[in-house]
C-alpha cells in the first residue's frame, strides 16, 4: 500500500459515508494508478451478482480517487464532483469488485490544474475498468469537475 492509500481511504470514509457501507478499500493509490475494491456481500443483488448501482458507485469513486491523488500531489485542496458519466456493463461480477483508474500521462491533468488555478474550476475525463477473473466486466468514463 502506498503512502497515499491510507489517507485516501480515510478521506473516502469520512467525506463519502457510502464508501464505509459498501466496504470500499484502497488497494493502490498513486498519481498513475488507483485501485479500489469492495466485497461482494454488501453489494449483492437478487441474482447473486454485484448490483449495478454498486458497480457504478465503485467506478465513480475510483475516478474521484484519481483526481484526489493528483490534487494531493500538487498540494491543492479543492472540491471534486462527478459531472456526467457513461458506463457499459459487459460481464456479471460474482467476486470482489476491483476497480482501476489509470492515467498514462500528466498532460490532461496539467491542463486541468492550469484552468483550476486561472478560473477556479477545472474538468477532467477519466476511464475506469472493473476487472474480474473472466475479464473486463465494466467500462466507465467519468467527467469530473474540480472547483475551489
From TrEMBL:
Gene3D superfamilies xref list: Hotdog Thioesterase
Ranges where the Thioesterase putative domain occurs: 8-147
Family matches, as Pfam families: YiiD_C (PF09500)
Coiled coil: none
NCBIfam families listed in its UniProt record: yiiD_Cterm (TIGR02447)
Protein name: YiiD C-terminal domain-containing protein
